Amino acid sequence: MILRRVLIANRGEIAVRVMRTCRRLGIETVLAVSAADADSVPARLADKTIEITSYLDVDAVMEAATAAGADAVHPGYGFLSENPRLARACEAAGVVFIGPSADVLEAAGDKLAARAHAVAAGLPVLPGGLVRIGATGADGAPGAADAAGLAERIGYPVLVKAAGGGGGRGLRVVRDPAELAGAVAVGSAEAEAAFGDARVYLERYVFPARHVEVQVLGDGENVIHLGDRDCSVQRRYQKLIEEAPAPRLGETLRVGMRTAAVALGLHLKYQGLGTVEFLADAGRSEFWFLEVNARIQVEHPVTEAVTGLDLVAEQIAVAEGRRLWLSQASVRLDGHAIECRINAEDPAAGFRPCPGTVTSAVFPAGPGIRVDTHIQAGSAVPPQYDSLLAKLIVSGASRAEALGRMRGALARCEIGGVATTLPALTALAADGEFAAGGVGTEYLARWLGRETQLVRDKSG
Amino acid sequence: MDPNPLTNDDVADILALLDSLPYDTFDLETPRFRLSLRRTPGGWTQSIQVRSAPEPLAAGGNASAPDEQAGTDEAGPGGKAGPLARQTTTTMSHRGAPDHDDVTSSWSHAGAEEGGRAVDEADGTGGASGSEGEGSQSGERAGQGNGERAGQGDGERAGQGDGELVTVRAPLPGTFYRAPRPGAAPFVEAGSRVGADTVIGIVETMKLMNSVPAGVAGVVAEFCVANAEFAAQGAALLRIRADR
Q: What b/e string do you get for A60-74 counting C-beta neighbours within 10 Å, with b at 16 or more?
């Protein structure tokens, strides 16, 4: 079927991003907006808007889709994007859900189920398993093990993770056996609060490691990869800079991860766009499956930059029931791209969120520069949503060229009214270790510590 | 379809054209958006202002009348633009001649319904070259002071009876939650005994959960904000009668 009208059940830059492709394809857009977003830039750009109570309310989204006469729902990322209930509700209402099937969403959303699928597909996983929890009702879950014994078998340090998790919530590193019980209890309570699922599991904590992910695209039968991305520059599991391809990875590791991602996609009969995340130890050429993100991701533009593809258009094509028009051999990966997340957070105050009103928004323009944003002078940055203001994506024939563009482009960004991550991004772009490439997930925290120390030394 | 603020490729096309011309500023203004391009020493900058108003679907409309809606919407995107959208002003100014009438050209393209009229709103933006986009971000480094510690109950104290009333304030603007999760028992109730480190609630700001400690030992006297209500930065969340 050919989609003619899509309800976009999201906000922010991804809403604008989806609209851009819809417009190019001649698809009308109806944007679901909360009261706080009724006058936002995305609302102004949409063909129509329809107010909903919350982006997290499946019933409200379905009502909006029906009222709008939409033949599809694009959920963006976050919110309901990986919610199997929305996928099923769409199916029941005869509306196309632009995303993987509800079954795949269920498998990917439950980290333990995803882990089991990865094992079944032959992917390496970190030693670990489900933990038995006394007080929170997850006791007696099949396969649950005593935390202390399990951690002993895995070897410290271990990571406590939420089975229903995501976004870094419910994650805890435990180095000392004496702290394990407490970490499991708190992690479990946090997991239940955040995801309504108290189950937690343990995994070996690999340190230092890199966060590398592979973009996959499937039509339910054929699955291809669109290269890898490195997302190691992160703070508290929130990514700040991503790039494609992952620098200084080594061909064995790169090919291994790409092959593994496709194998998992085939095993899941993956339909749509997805990401398989890995933890990589580049030094020892080892990698382990982390999780599947069954949606379009924030950092998809770096993949678009090196493949020349429009990933939202690919999502829509698969949602329309088409077979992949691309074969693996026809995917060309050229050059290098880096994405900087410009968030309304104050790096000088521990990245504290800074809601408010944008008074000015000037971005760079030119060859190899792309800006995805939803803000302009006068935009409100409401406190109830995430802090992403804009993504600056730079690309070049080489990483060095992209990095050079990144420095020049960051210097021309000017956002007034709210504190942003721009100063941190600018300083990172000038840091030798980042410039060398291939930093691990511990890099940003270490760099921030060093910066803070420098500031202290200078003032002291 | 009608002009949507330009895509990255559109801007790139304009820049490719401008690069061969001696202009330093470029302003494209339509009733729906305004694009300003500036040449700075480091390269071009862009700022876009979307001016069109959102178009809410008629509220209370009968759900599921897609055919009918598809019909009316044929005029949708086009109708949204209206005749005014045909009026476009483009201004480009020359680098070398800041004082004199900059090389300014405006034109309009003929619309379908109404012949386009050039509306040259002289808004002064085409003049000074490169005034935007050259500021560095160093200013944002100010305020390192790391000001208020999150949620410390060091607010005003009102002497009353046995202990002082200490107000615990929201460290950030956000939604105040009294319990760790929906349906769970609140962290504290009026009458609860708290220590300085006792968590009295959570303020959720931009997806970040900030635990708010009492900041002072004592007994919870009253709540000022109800569960799941929005609290402005610094708003009183609750008051604690501090131990002496």
A: bbbbbbbbbbbbbbb
